[in-house]
Amino acid sequence: MIVAKRKPLGEIADMIAPYKKITVIGCRSCVAICLAGGEKEVKMLVSALKVKNKKEGRKQQFEALVVERQCEKEWIQEVEDKILDSDLVLSMACSLGAQTIGDNYPHKLAFPALNTGIFGVPEEQGVWSEKCVGCGNCIIHTTGGICPIARCAKSMLNGPCGGSSDGHCEVNLEIDCAWYAIHERLKLQNRLELIEQVSAPKDWSTSHSGGRRTYVREDAKLTQHQKKGKGAVR
Amino acid sequence: MTPRRPKIVGFCCERHGLDSPVAAAKSGITYDASVRIIDVPCTGRVDGLHILKALEDGADAVFVLGCLEKNCYYDTGSIEGRKRVEHVRSMLEEAGIEKERVEMFNTSSTMTWRFPEIVSKMCDVVNRLGPLGKEGDEQ
Amino acid sequence: MSRSVLIIGGGPAGVSAAKALVDRSEGIVLVERSESLGGMARELTCKGVSECRNCGACYVVDRSTELLRDQSAEVLLLSETTQVKKNGNGYEVKIKISPRYVTNNCIGCNKCIEACPVDDKAIFAPTGNGQPRHHWIDRSKCLHFKKDKCQKCADVCPTKAIDYEDRARNVTRKVSSIICATGMEPVDASEVKRLGGGVLENAISSLDAERILNKHGRLLRPSDGKQPKKVAVIQCVGSRSMKTGVEYCSKFCCKYATKISQLLIDQDPEVNLDFYFMDLRTLYEPHDDFKRWVKERKKTVRMIRSMPAVVLPGNDGNLVVRAATETDSEVIETEYDLVLLSVGMRPAGNSKELMDALGIKADERGFAICDKSLEDSGVFLVGTTCEPMDIEETSVKAAAAASRASHRKEGA
Amino acid sequence: MKGQIQVIGCKSCTEIPQLIDMNKLIEKASTMDLVVSTVLVGAVCDSKSIKQVVQEAKEREVDRVVVLACPKKVVNPALLAAFKKAKVNEFLVEYVNIRDEVVLPHMDDPPRAQAKAETMMVAALQKVMGLKPLETLKEQMRTRNVVVLGGGASGRKAAETAAKTGAHTIIIEKGTKSFKAPGVLMQNSVLLKSKGYGGNFVLTIRAGEKVEELQCAAIVVATGGGWTRLNGPLAKACKSALPLYELDEQIRAGKKMEGPIVIVDSPDPAGKSMQVRDYAWDESLELAIELKRRSTDSDITIVFQEMRAFGLSELRYKEAAELGVRFIRYDATGIPKIDPKEPNVVSVKDLAQGETIRLRFGTLAFASIPANDDNEGIADTLRIPMSPDGGIRHGSIQRGPVSTPRPGIFICGSALFPKTKDIAEEEGMVAGELAGEFASKGIIEYGGSVAEVTQEKCSACLTCIRTCPYEAPFIGIANKAEIRTQACQGCGMCVGICPSKAIELRNCTDDIIMQETKTMLRGDF
After folding, report:
1. What is residue D278's predicted lDDT score, i.e. its pLDDT?
2. Could you tell me which chains touch chain D, where touching means 3 or more CB pairs under 8 A?
3. Which of C56, D283, D360, D449 is 20 to 30 Å from D47 by CA-CA measure?
4. How many CB pairs under 8 A join B and D?
């Protein structure tokens, strides 16, 4: 899932300082699960900001909302009036949320309250670690199910760099060397021969460096004929 | 009207948390009246939101009082409570509000002196830091 | 025949047993000599600051409160079992209840104590955390019962809780079995003069320390009420020594002494603490926990395996401890603000008649001897009556005895 | 619910010492809307006034009550019972502890106390309107089985005692030990899975070859210490080394042990952090004395770090010393070692002399009891916590000495940490008693103020499931969290942590708490 983290309150406060009527919108999917932008976080942020304002004698009006998935316009349309009615929308979703609002209501300001971080896995309650960077061309079947691009600091494709020392990464001794892990895993699976194989330079065009990516599913797209006017879900 | 007195909210768990004011009362110890006791089944029930809302609604300081860790009736409740309090404290710090205004305390039913001590401690904090925000601007 | 059980003694053992029986909705009569429940545990302080240290002090207080709240339980305070007669399979007991002179209206505001003209007071609050919190009057001291009908306390009492008309009562109860939990008494520190017990003001017994902590939440020097910065804790004072006649190990001293030491450091990490001991016999924890804890605090805490020879007065209330080093190679003297003497325990002296009536024999140390035949006759011994033990063990054994007692009844 | 509130003031609790003007308070109450009845009684706990207030309640068709007196725990339960009869839901009776929270602590400031009391009353009135009528439900226990895990000293005692309470006991013994025990004894069987909650557990057990399901009302964990497994460095170096209890058995069986005998508290008998207990020491001292008595010339040495001769066994310590048993104390600086080349010599640094000595031995015994390796498995299956030293951890002492955090599961003996035999047995007795009592209730009472999930809001993030100490939340068929009400204890931990605010604690909702706080803060005192 997408893992995000709330910006420091001070930063948020400065960001929204000039505006009077602020709508804070959370999201019930990824960011709710990673405890960053669910209903609770939204309410707490609003409350904390109110306390801050109270202390500093500033007056601002807040509205706290949560939508199912902020990255989809249909869900956002449900709270349209609230958005239109405010000076500023503070999005407590991943930046997709903020951008979707922005794209749908270009004349409205939609600011992010979260820093969108990683495609992460919850290792335990409250700990998320990055395991994918979305390069668009997955190879983990050859690397024992461990992604060297996400989990190696240097995204090495052919074995560890020289800096790997007893299973740790030279860039940050806290984290494990991805290639050490790959070796161990392959050994476990009796597929060590795979590590010998030299993989050719990766075609990065599928990744971000090929510019902004758009995935299209032709059979799912509605033809001009099918399309109705602004169709809402419910 | 009289100069604004400190307003302190104390979320107390129904076990030792509420036993300790009772114990103090029964031993004839008096303490400042500005504390408002809100009873919750367990400090694990206390949500950061409750604490922030209290500050928002006019409290100058908030404390959470539960059983001693490892002696919580619900086993892990007071540990959970402490984590919530710590989170709120860090939020306050980020927002530039004195985090001393929010505290977690643990107690047991034998500490007659504990509750009065806590109250006076929080009162001192407020007297030192002054009220949170100006009088009457509670949303 | 009455189904209820007589419990002699309202300390940890008595209360736990009583509670266990009451939970099983069985009738009990609890006879406690003093004015409140809790026994020794009343004066013990909670050893935790934010984390529980399993000292069990609160356990006793909680149980006592619950017991007093329970309508079905008959708790007789300030009373004594005067006579026990075998009665079929059970017993018939006479109990003398002395007057308290204070009714349940008492709210423990302590005004009466301030008002009392007697120098060392004639009206008292319950000891430590004793439950219930109602005060009581010591007739022998109270001036009301002397010529000049003093009634200052009655005058100041906001709830008119003073009742000079209160009179002693004798009651008789038929019970199926008897649980004897007469408990123990601490060794008096003043028996160990060489360590300053009872001689030097700032050489206090662990029990005094508990009292002070329990009352103020902080340990203060008796001499000047300052918080000590350098403390010595001396183990086995009066235990494991022929002199005081307590040649056995009192078992719980290591437990509470280590926990008090930890409490002191928790409250004020600045405190320097030396822990003099012979063998470390902490209970119910991986045995090196305390040692590990000490290691983490090398700078402030030292464990010294040595029995100090003597404690001498130093300047302004300080004390000098003279002790051999661990390897007996040399003798060193160290100065402290406060010396804490971990005193052991003795079985409480019981009235001979009662023991005989119950058929309880005592060994040469005064510990009651538990044997099968005794339990068959319906007399159960619990707690420190028969050997040294701490609150946790006591509560378990008491509950077990209670269970045996109630099953015996079913058998009967 | 119409919302017709009755306010009861109790003089005996509150009017002392004429500090609070109850009449004023009650008058104020009568002016509040929805208050249909106000009563001021001498003492709300005496049966007369209970009759009076309930009578009044009936006449005015009261459905909610606010009692201005002392803590709920203290007020006579008869009051609640009476209200129940008067068709007032017990969860709609709100107690305000005027006595201990206002009257007594604020004697020196009557005006503020009065104001505070008033505010508390107003808050209570608002709160009581927010409450919903709840009911406690009952579920039949399917069996009166009490399962005892482990057939050791404490386990057997537990079974015996539980049987006395009328429960049907089943002992799950992993070994082939056979002994007389009430109920069923399942030898070489192991606990595989456990479902359910206190009163209705379903255990999956592998008995020999076959796997079977077993229903039970209560469980006693008595799996004991990890005696048998000795694979620490010392044990590895000296294959013939015995755990103390085996030496004990052999000697009691009259077997002549080859001398000299060395009993050592190995720092690491099972290759894990060691726990030496009084058990070991009582036993080793008794053994030493026994051997010395048999033949005075037998050569016995006890090597130890701390001589834990608790209580009266101090006397045995002395006796053993007098009989000429050799005691050697060591510490971390010189732990006992055995050189594999000389497997019958243990060398250790004697603290007293400060020099290393070599002890030639014929028999070596370990006096230390490692924690049981099975604990982890058991704790995982039963979902009960463990202590860092590998024992099973018991719950808050507030729940009594032999309880685990989970109702219906009790624990005794060396499973927590090694203990002397007699304490283990006493614990077993208590655990058995409690388990038996628990089972003999026959019904599980549940419900009342418990957590419930608003499924539309739930993001199925599993946070509640990971946080709950009682295994109450689970993911239901709708792939949303649900609460197993029978297991829920109403602590509200899941409620406080739910990121989607999908869980609420009945009659203790966020709104109620925050409203109460707000009102309390409005009051000026």
Report:
1. 56
2. A, B, C
3. D449
4. 136
In sequence order, the 6+-apart residues with CB closer than 8 A to the CB of D298 are: D259, D260, D261, D291, D292
| CA separation for the pair A33, A3 (Å, rounded) | 9
pLDDT at residue number B65: 97
Domain that holds residue A137: 133-202
Instruction: Name the minimum distance, in Å, from the CA of D67 to any CA of chain B.
Output: 16
d(CA C57, CA D459): 44
- Chains C, A in contact, 3 or more Cβ pairs below 8 Å: no
C interface test, pick of D157, D285, D327, D426 with most C CB neighbours within 10 Å:
D426
Tell me, yes or no, whether A226 lies in a domain. Answer: no
Q: Report the distance separating Cα D392 and Cα D383, nearest Å.
A: 11
The domain over range D448-506 is classified in CATH as 1.10.600.10:
no
> Does C109 contact D310 at a Cβ distance shorter than 8 Å?
no
Residue B17 has pLDDT above 80, yes or no: yes
pLDDT value for C370:
87
Of C131, C130, C123, the residue nearest C161 (C-alpha): C123
Summary mean pLDDT of chain D: 89
C309-324 CB burial, b ≥16 within 10 A, e <16: eebeebeebbbbbebb
Name chain C contacts of D351, Cβ cutoff 8 Å: 326-327
- Find the CB nearest B110 among C49, C51, C129: C129
What stretches of D55-101 adopt beta strand conformation (E)?
64-68, 93-96
Distances (CA, A) of D142 to D118, D201, D440, D485: 50, 9, 11, 17
DSSP for A52-119? Answer: HHHHHT---EEEEEEES-TTSHHHHHTTHHHHHTSSEEEEES-HHHHHHHHHHSTTSEEEESEEEEEE
CB contacts, 8 Å: A47 with chain B: 49, 52-53, 55-56
Domain boundary among A64, A95, A118: A118
- Any alpha helices (H) in C134-225, and if so which ranges? 152-156, 206-216
Of C52, C56, C248, the CB nearest to D315: C248
Nearest chain D residue to C280, by CA: D306
* A228 pLDDT above the threshold of 90: no
CA dihedral in degrees (C261, C266, C269, C275; nearest 10)? 10
Q: Which residue of D has its CA nearest to A31?
A: D499
Name the residue among B74, A29, B11, B106 with its Cα closest to residue D467.
B74
- The residue-averaged pLDDT of A56-69 equals 95
pLDDT tens digits along C301-317: 999 999 999 999 998 89
Q: Does B27 touch chain D (CB under 8 A)?
A: no
CATH number at residue A65: 3.40.50
Q: Please give the structure tokens belonging to residue D256.
A: 């002549």
Distance of CA D308 to the CA centre of its chain: 27
- How far off is chain D from B96, nearest CA to CA, in Å? 23
Q: What pLDDT digit, counting tens, does each position of A157-213 carry?
A: 998 999 998 899 999 999 999 999 999 999 999 999 999 889 888 888 888 887 889
Number of domains in chain B: 1
Lowest mean pLDDT among B61-75, D107-121, D359-373: D359-373
Q: Which two tokens stand for residue D120?
A: 């508390």
What integer pLDDT is reported at residue D268 of this predicted model? 59
Q: Are D145-226+372-443 and D233-366 in the same CATH fold? A: yes
CA-nearest of C333, C266, C329, C330 to C300 is C266
Judging contacts by C-beta atoms under 8 Å, the chain D residues touching residue B84 are 496-497
Residue A232 pLDDT: 44
Q: What is the CATH number of the domain that holds B66?
A: 3.40.50
| CA–CA distance, B13 with D31 (Å, rounded to integer) | 32
D74: closest chain B residue by CA:
B22
Residue B101 C-alpha, separation from nearest chain D C-alpha, in angstroms = 16
ipTM of the complex: 0.93
